[in-house]
Structure formats: structure tokens, C-alpha cells
Amino acid sequence: MADVLSQGEIDALLSALSTGEMNADELKKEESQRKVKLYDFKRALRFSKDQIRSLTRIHENFARLLTTQLSAQLRTFVQIAVASVDQLPYEEFIRSVPKMTLMNVFEPYPLDGRFVMEVNPNIAYAMLDRMLGGRGEAFNKVENLTEIEAKILSQLFQRKLDTFKEAWESVVSLDPVMDEIEVNPQFLQLVSPNETVVVISLSTTIGDASGMINICLPHVVIESILPKLSVHLWMQQTKKDQQPGEFVALETNVKKAPLDIVVELGNSQITISEFLQLSVGDTIELDRSIEDALLVRVGNDPKFLAQPGKRKGFVGVQITETIVEEAVNDE
């Protein structure tokens, strides 16, 4: 958008032209000259602004899901948000991370290649301390990671990948698998140094510890799915596809909830004296004929009528009618 001059600036410009301080012909000549814009071929911009916005939305969803997951798992205050999304050469990304850090390398099947999730040691050890019953204090001793600590962190990072998969489901179905944990970024040769990567930086706070989680996505790995990141395809998704993952998980868990179902054979009324005199072999007469349908209650509410029978040697009932609840009119 062009700059808009204020009335004072317009008056100053007209005054300069009238006094000869500025020459109108020179201004026109300068405007007609070709403007040169510097372009660094080592920092090739291979992601469009449209694709960057889509990646930002995906990882904003990932940050929300990860916040919910870690809050429940660590039982402490967790806040994660997208700080920046940049595209730069892989070599520059490696130089920007700390000398000793936690680089989680994983393979995003079915894509061919590897991604990297770099977790600041302050964040990683705060999570580890909480997992082991501590207060979530941050301390950095990444250079001498024990086997037990490495195993716990690997399991913790694998759960992050499950959330990463859920965040990407609206674009592509991924099956990320943890490959290795590297502590020295100089030993990690993911792609060629000049290969363009997009780096999503997540500002993370866990308890009193804070730091960054950086996700490195090489262009060569996600090149095949870049057309799916356009706004046109994004807005064509159905409402069901855009349903947040936590609601899908909630619906799945509700469907698995146990529910009591009771089939009533009938009812009978007897006195306390008759009840106390009951013994093995006695018969209680019910108020329902063998030809009458049985009442099926679901959670104490009458829902169906059924008939008794046997199937493959087991006693059961067959639903014959659904009881329709009458609407209650408030008058």
C-alpha cells in the first residue's frame, strides 16, 4: 500500500518545488529508472505466502493439542504458542540451535525423508523432572544423558508425534515414527546445507521453565503435499474434516462408555412374612404372561419391548418394538 502524505508534507513538497530546492524533472527521471531488488540464491524462497499461512494454521492447532496433552500428562501449567514460521537454508537452521540440545529425528510415513523437532534442554528436563515426580525444575546436562532418561524422553516425544499426526490429519494422513535422538546438531545431516526448510518455532512454558520447540520441515520432503496447503483446498474441507481432534476423541470415548441394560421378566408383590419363608425350589408367580413382550430398560429408562428365546444354546431376547417417548407439553 502506497504511503499517504499528510497536508503538512504536501505543503512542504510544493514549497520545495516552487523555490527550486527540488526539480520535478529529476524526480520523474528517478522514478523511471529500473529499481533493482537484491536476491540471495542461497536463501531461495520456495514456499509461497499461502503455504506459509497454511503451515501456521496447522501448527497453531498442534500447539493447542500439545498444550492439552502435556497439561494432563505433567499436571502442571503448560502454555505453547506459535512464535514464528520462517523459511531458510538448513545450514542456517543448524547454526541457530544451541550447541547441545535435543534433536528428535522422525520419519513422517508415507512421506520420503525425515523431520526434526528440536526441544530446548530447559523444556525437556522440566518435562522429565515432572514425569519422575519432581517439581518440573529445569537443568541442563544434555551431554551425559543416561539410558533411563533417554528412554523416558523417547516415549514422551513419541506421544508428541501422535499429536503431530492429529494436527496434520486435515491435510494428509501421516504415521510419524521416532528414528533417533541427537544431542549435537553438527552431527545431524538431514538434507544438503543449502536445502530450503521451513522452521516453526513454538514458544513453550512448562511450570517455571521456558524455551523453544523448533520443528524443521525440509522442502524436499513435503514438496509432494504442497498443493494441499493452498487456501482454496483448505476452505473446501467439510465441516467434519475441520472438527477439532479433541472432539473426535471425546466422541470415540463416549461410544466406548459401558451402559447397563436390564430385561424385566415381570413383577410380583409378596408380604414380608412370605419373603422370609422363601426357600430353594419355591416358585414366585409374576404378573406377566409368557405370551407378553418383555420390557427392556437402558439405564433405568424403558426403551424397547422384546421376546425371550435361545440362540446357539444361550438365553437371549429379540427386540420387537422401540418405545417412543411422548413429548411433555409445558402448559
From TrEMBL:
Which InterPro entries does the record associate with it? Answer: CheC-like_sf (IPR028976), Flag_FliM (IPR001689), FliN-like_C (IPR001543), SpoA-like_sf (IPR036429)
Annotated Flagellar motor switch protein FliN-like C-terminal domain residues: 254-323
A molecular function GO annotation = cytoskeletal motor activity
GO:BP terms for this protein?
bacterial-type flagellum-dependent swarming motility; positive chemotaxis
Which keywords annotate this record?
Bacterial flagellum, Cell membrane, Cell projection, Chemotaxis, Cilium, Flagellar rotation, Flagellum, Membrane
Transferase in keyword set: no
Asked if the keyword Transferase belongs to this entry, the reply reads: no
Q: Which CDD domains match?
A: FliM
State its location(s): Bacterial flagellum basal body; Cell membrane
Topology in membrane: Peripheral membrane protein
Which GO CC annotations does the UniProt entry carry?
bacterial-type flagellum basal body; plasma membrane
- NCBIfam families linked: fliM_switch (TIGR01397)
Record's family? Belongs to the FliM family.
Q: What is this protein called?
A: Flagellar motor switch protein FliM
What species was this sequence derived from?
A: Evansella caseinilytica
